[in-house]
Amino acid sequence: MTLRWNFKKFDELSTLELYNILTLRNMVFVVEQHCPYLDTDGIDEASSHLCGWEGNVLVVYARIIPPGIVYPEASIGRVVSNPVYRKTGAGKLLMQKAIQELYDHFNVQEIKIGAQLYLEQFYSGFGFKKISVVYLEDGIPHIKMLHTK
Predict the structure, then answer these.
(1) Is 131 helix (H, G, I), strand (E, B) or coil?
(2) Using an 8 Å Cβ cutoff, are 99 and 113 in contact?
(3) pLDDT tens by residue, 22-79
(4) How far apart are CA 17 and CA 50, in angstroms?
(5) What's the whole-number mean pLDDT along residues 78-91?
(6) In the CATH scheme, what architecture does the domain 4-109 have?
(7) Which residue blocks in the chain are alpha helix, DSSP H?
(8) Which residue ranges make up each domain of the chain?
(9) Are 50 and 5 in contact (CB under 8 A)?
(10) Using the 8-state DSSP alphabet, how is residue 29 labeled?
(11) Are 77 and 108 in contact (CB under 8 A)?
């Protein structure tokens, strides 16, 4: 799969790009996962946004968060794949690109994430290590994980 990537700060996103990002996040995190929560949490404005597109369709997305916003470390959040494109490898490409963008743009040594527990093995494949016990976030089991450069 060949995706067109863009990596933009919040104020660089077009209205249409932002609409597509919020639609995909809500489609998966709120509707599919049956988890009513406020997705617009005030972190988007301080973050950069990594999008993988096929034509005009948003295939994968991740929020790239600088250090000091959510954790002392940099972070990757709201990692999401369009349900139509799952099992195509697009999610793996997204994580590889997200990790690289963080290290390239923010000159950090560590990336901390709050991962849904069922994705522990997926994130471990990129070098993330479990650093917490299981905790519930919006009723979903999560763990903290750390990636070191």
Answers:
(1) coil
(2) no
(3) 999 999 998 988 888 888 999 999 999 999 999 999 999 999 999 999 999 999 999 9
(4) 11
(5) 95
(6) 3-Layer(aba) Sandwich (3.40)
(7) 15-25, 90-106, 120-124
(8) 4-109
(9) yes
(10) I
(11) no
